[in-house]
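Subject: for your reference before the review

Hello V.,

The reviewers asked for a structural picture of the protein, and I figured it would be easier to keep everything in one thread rather than splitting it across files. Below is the amino acid sequence we used in the manuscript, unchanged from the supplementary table.
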Amino acid sequence: MSTVNPWKRFIGLLPGGVRTVGTVTSINSNNGTSNVQLRNGTSVAVQGVSVAVGLMAFVVDGRVAGPAPALDQYEVEV
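And here is what came back from the structure prediction:
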């Protein structure tokens, strides 16, 4: 059933799931997985081999979603 509540309609437009960025450290083309080192130093194995080793990648719900720009990370305390 559709809702007329604008907030619920807006939330429905947003994509769900976990998103992060990391550096591809290795690719295993035999099983289609890549090892990605996240910015906090954690290494995870994810599905997908579309990003080359050494480049940044978007990881969405355990899959490589595509290349990510290599931007600097800043922490600001307010």
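For the response letter, the relevant points are probably these. The longest strand covers residues 19-28. The beta strands are 19-28, 33-38, 43-47, 56-60, 63-67.

Happy to draft the paragraph if you're swamped.

O.
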